[in-house]
Amino acid sequence: MSKTVLGPDGQPRCRWCSAAPEFFAYHDREWGFPVDDDHRLFEKLCLESFQSGLSWRTILAKRENFRAAFHNFDFTRIARFTERDVERLLQDEGIIRHRGKIEAVINNAERAQELVRREGSLAAHVWRFEPGVGEVAEPQTASSSAASIALSKDLKRQGWKFVGPTTVYSFMQAMGLINDHAEECSIRPKAERARAAFTRPAQVLKVASR
């Protein structure tokens, strides 16, 4: 079976776009393009955790509601959420009302703050796990990888929640740590050019004051 379908412009796109009309714009403009913005990276990790057991279409349809509910995924603000905020979010029909996942976002916001204090940025840490040449499977044939397993283990060790290898692999696909567009997809070369031009964020080494 072909891994592509024709898009609105008659050009091939990854087959998963055919599941919903709104997937084409997300696929063409976001999926697989490299990201170094900490809030966007944190948002995607959170949304991938909310997706667990659900479809991405459900999450994408509610994304703006999630952004409003979680202050555009500013983890500094989210880390200050209290039980009162949890109860408020559990009443918010615009998002996924799952206590465990909501509490995980708050927990992960605290862990993100700790990580940033140690390493300068979430981006610097995440991009350390970008797989090298020859370490990436044929496009759209895997649901996890050595790199996603390593990043998952690393985040769990730091106390993050709902960040299993499959969730992390989806995150890596979406945030451009790998280019998983199908070989015949017309967007694959654009994503590859963006990755080639992308400056990987450098780790900031914290020097203790004397």
TrEMBL record:
GO biological process: base-excision repair
SUPFAM superfamilies the record matches: DNA-glycosylase
Residues holding Zn(2+): 14, 27, 181, 185
InterPro entries: Adenine_glyco, DNA-3mA_glycosylase, DNA_glycosylase
Lineage: superkingdom: Bacteria
Short name of any one Pfam family annotated for the protein: Adenine_glyco
PANTHER family tied to this protein: DNA-3-METHYLADENINE GLYCOSYLASE 1, DNA-3-METHYLADENINE GLYCOSYLASE I
Name of this chain's protein: 3-methyladenine DNA glycosylase
Native organism: Microvirga vignae
